Target: Family 16 glycosylhydrolase
Amino acid sequence: MIIIWPAFWMLGDDIGSVQWPNSGEIDIMETIGREPSTVHGTIHGPGCSGSGGIDGKCLKRWTRA
Model:
C-alpha cells in the first residue's frame, strides 16, 4: 500500500539557528493519507509540535506573559 502525505507549509526565518519546532511552522495545507477527504491547517511551535499542534491548551502557553 502506498500512502501519500502532500503538504504546503512555511517555517520561521530563524530555522537555521533555533531549529524546529522553536522556529515555528504553519501547515497551510496538509492531507494525511489515512484521511484523504480532509485537509488540515495547523500551527506548530515550542511546546506544540508534532501531533500536538495549536489548540486551546497550546495557545494559552504561547500567550502567557
User: Anything to note?
Assistant: The helical segments are 15-18, 56-63. The chain has one domain: 7-63. The chain has a mean pLDDT of 77.
